[in-house]
Amino acid sequence: MSRVKDLQKNLFGGTTSNARQFGMIFTLVAIVVLFQILTDGLTLRSDNLIALFQQNSYILILAIGMLMVIVAGHIDLSVGSIAAFTGILVAKAMAEWNLPWPVGILFGLAIGAVIGAWQGFWVAYIGVPAFIVTLAGMLLFRGGNQFIGNANTIPVPEGFRVIGSGFLPETGPNTGYNNLTLLLGLAGCIAVVWRELQARRTRKEMNAEPIPMWISILRMAVMVGVLIFVTLRFASGRVGTSFPVSGIILVALVLVYSFYTRNTAGGRHIYAVGGNSRAAELSGVKLKRVNFFVMMNMSVLAALAGMIFVARSAASGPQDGNGWELDAIAAVFIGGAAVAGGIGTISGSIVGGLVMAVLNNGLQLMGVGTDRVQIIKGLVLLLAVAIDVYNKSQGRFSIIGSLTRPFRRDTPAAPTPSSGAEREPAKTTVAG
Amino acid sequence: MSDVPILLEMRSITKEFPGVKALSDVNLVVRAGEIHAIVGENGAGKSTLMKVLSGVYPYGSYDGDIVYKGEVSRFSDIRASERAGIVIIHQELALIPHMSITENIFLGNEPRKNGAIDWKAANRQALELMARVGLREDPDTLIKDIGVGKQQLVEIAKAFAKNVKLLILDEPTAALNEDDSQHLLDLLRGFRERGITSIIISHKLNEIEAIADRITIIRDGHTIETLDVKGDGVDEDRIVRGMVGRELHSRFPDHTSKIGEVFFEVRDWTVRHPISAERLVAKHSNFVVRRGEIVGFAGLMGAGRTELAMSIFGRSYGVYQAGTIVKDGKEIVLKTVADAIANGLAYVSEDRKAIGLNLLDDIKTSTVAAKLSKITHHGVLDQVEEYQAAEAYRQSLRIKTPTVDEGVSKLSGGNQQKVVLAKWMFTDPDLLILDEPTRGIDVGAKYEIYGIIQRLADQGKGVIVISSELPELIGLCDRIYTVSEGTITGEVARQDADPENLMKLMTSTKKMQTR
Q1: Count of domains forming chain B
Q2: Are residues B179 and B39 in the same domain?
Q3: Which residues of B touch A278 (CB under 8 A)?
C-alpha cells in the first residue's frame, strides 16, 4: 500500500468515524481560516475564542442530548422552553428562598429530570410521537416561564454566574499565562498520546493490521499541535481570563457522553433502537426504557444549558432559549446524523455545532446583520445535508469519504419498490 | 372436449426475476363461467402468475401471451386490466379503514356530476352492489367497523363497480371464519350461475374440492396439470400428490441425531391476535422438544407458526391468554424478550432484513447485539472481545467477508443469515427457534446452514425449524408438527413423514389427539 493510501486510511481512522463528520472538520478548518483572513486575525484572538465558547457552550450541550434523541429516532422541540423554564425557577428559588447557588444548580437539574420524566412518559409508555409531545412541551414550558416570572427578568446571584461567565483562577508562578489552562492543555496532550497508544495495543490484540508508526506519530503531532495552539490562545488572554468554566463543563460532558454512546451497552441500545426498533426489541433491548432515557436525558441537559445561559446573562428572562432547539437540531444534522435515526456521533454533532458557531461569530465580526446571518446559516444547513444526500444517491461518499469506513454512511439495502413483489409468497412480517 | 367458450388463455408464460425464474412456460386455460382453482405450494408461482395477468407486471416484463376474449392483451398496469374486466382481490384487502363502504367501493372510480362527486348516485349504486354480494350494512359505515368477512364482500362489490368479467380471489377465505367462508363460497356459486368467471387461489383443499370446476396445479413455476373436478373424480389426495410430487435430492448433509431427554415443553399455549380480540392465533398448543433434536413446524402461510414461535419468545407477538412453558422440569415465565434470552431461548426471525438485523450495523456489532452483557466488564464494552467473538464466528460459520468490520447490508442473503445465526449462537441458547432459516438464499448456502443446524443439535441444543418447504423439513427434522389455523394438527416422526401426509395434516383443521 502506498504511503498516501496509508494516510488516507488511517489519519482520521477512528473506527466510529464517518464521512460527513470529517467533511465537516475540513469545513470547520476552512471556515476558521477564511474568517481569520477576512477579519484580519480577529477570529482567533483570545478574547474572541473565549466569547465564542461562552456564547455557544449551551447550544453544544443541547446538541449532545439532541444527538442521542435523534439517533434513537425522535426529535425534541422543547429544549429552548425547558431551558427558559428551568432558568426562571432556579433564579426565583435563589432570590426568594435564598437557596445557596450550588443547591440552586441541583434544584435546576432536578427540574430537568422531572420534566424529562414527564415527556419520556408520553413518548415511551403512551407512544405519542416525540414531535407532538415536545411541541406541546415547547408551548407548555414557554408559558410556564412567563407565568412564573410574570414575563419579568429575575437576576441571579454572583456565585451562580460562575458556570456561565466564570474563569479558572490565577494560581502558581507568574508565567504570563493562565496556569490552570496550561495544565488542562497538558492533560489533553497526554490523553491524546495515551489514547493513540491504547488504540495501537487494541489493534494488536485483535490481530488487525497495525497502523504504520509514522501515521500514529503524525496523527498525534497534528492533534497535540492543535491542542497546544488552542491552549496558548486561551491561556494568554487578558489577566483573569482562561478557558471558560462553561467550556470545561462542555468538554467534560462531551467526553462522558462519547464514552457512553460508544463503549457501553446502554449507548449501543440507542443506536439499535434507531437503526431497527423491531430488531432491537427482538434482541432483548428494552425499547421503552431506552426511549424514556433519551427523552429524560435531553431535558436534564436542557435544564443545565438554561442555567449556564442565565448565569452568563446574569438574569433569567422571558425570551431565554428562543430557537435553541433549531440550532441544536441543525448542529446534529450538519454533524452527520441521519434523519431516520441510527446514525450519528457526539463528536460529529459538536463539530457541526462549531461550524455554525464560527460562521455566526465570523459574520458578526464582519458586521453582517442578523437577518443575513440567518439566511446564510439556513443555506449552510441545507447545503451540508444536500451534498451528503446527493453523494449517497450517486453511490459516492462525501468528498473525503474514501477516508472512512464506507458502510457507516451507506444506505441500508433499502427494499426496491419491486422487491416485495418479487418474493412470492409475499408474507407479512408475522405470518406463519 | 367442451363447447364452453374459452375466456382466458395464458400461453407459455415465463417470468424471471434477477437470479430466479419464477414462472417457466406456464399455461392456463379458463373457460367462461367456470370457477377455476389454482393450487400449489408456497412459492410455486401462483401469485406471480396472477400479477402477470392483472398487469402488476406489465406487458413486456414477461414472455408469453395472454389471450383474453380471443384477443392478445397487453396490459400496461392494473387499470388497463381492470378496464378489460379483470379484477384481482388480494389476500391483504386494499380498503381504506377510515372511509365508508360507499367511498371504498368507488375509490378511484367515483361517479361524477359537473366535476364533483355525485354522492347521491354513489350511495344508490353502492346499495345495489351491496345487495348483489349479500351485504346488509349502512353504506356510510366505516370499513374499520365491519368484520373481515364483510370487508371481503366490500372488495367484491368494488370489483362489480368496475364491471368485472373475470374475478380473481387470492386466498379469499384465509382470514375468514367458517360462516363467512361458507357465505363467500355460496356467493361464488351464485356468480357462476350468472355467468361470471372466477379464479380462486386457496390452500384450503376441501373448499376447492367443493367449489371448483377445474383445478390447475403449479409447482416450482411450472404447470403440472389441469384437473376436471367432476370428470376426473378429483379428491384432496389427488390434489396433494400433484402439488408436492417432486423427488427429494440429497440436499442435506448426512446426520444422525443424538436425541436426549425432553427438556422443553409448551402446554396449552393460547394466544390471541394483537388487534382483533376474538381471533386466536394459537389454540391450546402442546409440544415438546428433546435435547439434540431438530423439530420441524410445517404449515401453510398464515397457519400461525411464526405467531406461535414469537409468542413463546418473550411474548413478542399477540396477547398471551393461557399456557405454560416448562424447561428442564421447571416452569418458566417469559414476559419479555430479555427473559427469553436469559432463559436460553433464541429466535431467528423469518425476515432477517426487516426484523432480524440492524442493517446499519457491521458484522461484529450485530454478532454481539443480543447479549452485550457477555462482553461488558464494569459497565464498559470490551471491543477486543467483541472483535474476537465475531472473528471466531466468521471462521466457524464461514461468513464470506474480508473483515468483521464490514456492514451487514453489504453481505449476501446467505451470509447475512449466518450473521444472524452467529448473533443467536453468541447468546448460548439451549433452544433455537429458526423461522424459515433458508428463505431467499441459494442452494450452496442452504446446505451450509443445514450443517450448522445439525451441529447445534449435536451440541445438545434443541432446534425448532419453521419452514414452508416440506422437503426441507423432511430432510432435516427428526420430528415434525403440523400447524393449521393456529392449531397443532399432527405430529409425524421422520421415518413416517412424506409430503402427502404432511400436506393433508396441514390443510386439516382438527386438533391433534393428545397421546
Answers
A1: 4
A2: yes
A3: 354-355
